[in-house]
Specification:
This protein is α/β, with parallel strands linked by helices. It has a single domain, classed as Trna Endonuclease, Chain: A, domain 1 (3-Layer(aba) Sandwich), CATH 3.40.1350. It is built from two helices and eight strands. The strands form two sheets. A five-stranded mixed β-sheet has the order 1-2-5-7-8, covered by helices on one side. A hairpin with a 2-residue loop joins β3 and β4. α1 packs parallel to α2. It is globular.
């Protein structure tokens, strides 16, 4: 099961919405989201675009629940509309980042940034 968390942060004059998405889908070192169709995920990306249009900063952070991956890309073969929404979000100014994680039985810790490839 994947989970999303949305945070609102104010730092000085910066007003930022940040959404996180958990990534578990991996094939040959390439990680993708979503692992199943997600109309909710599409709706969230569209809402982030609206945040940018209203003058806020917006970010989507893909938290990859494994380490030593090559890059992140949307799983357009699973849900083409999510891939399209991610492209539209990026074009609207939503910042898209991904981080892999060190995972143990008792913990999950952000490790390092992973390259994001939106368009194949």
């Amino acid at each position: 099961m994947t989970a999303a968390l949305i945070f609102y942060v104010e730092a000085g004059s910066h007003k930022v919405f940040i959404e996180t998405k958990g990534v578990t889908l991996e094939r040959d070192g390439i990680v993708s989201f979503p692992d199943a169709p997600t109309e909710r995920g599409v709706r969230h990306l569209n809402e982030l675009r609206q945040c940018v249009a209203a003058g806020y900063e917006a970010h989507v952070v893909f938290v990859i629940q494994m380490c030593d991956v090559q890059y992140f890309t949307p799983a357009t073969q699973i849900h083409p509309a999510f891939g399209e929404a991610l492209i539209a979000a990026e074009q609207a100014g939503v910042q898209i980042v991904a981080f892999d994680c060190s995972v143990t039985e008792d913990s999950l810790s952000i490790n390092q940034a992973v390259q994001v490839r939106i368009q194949a």
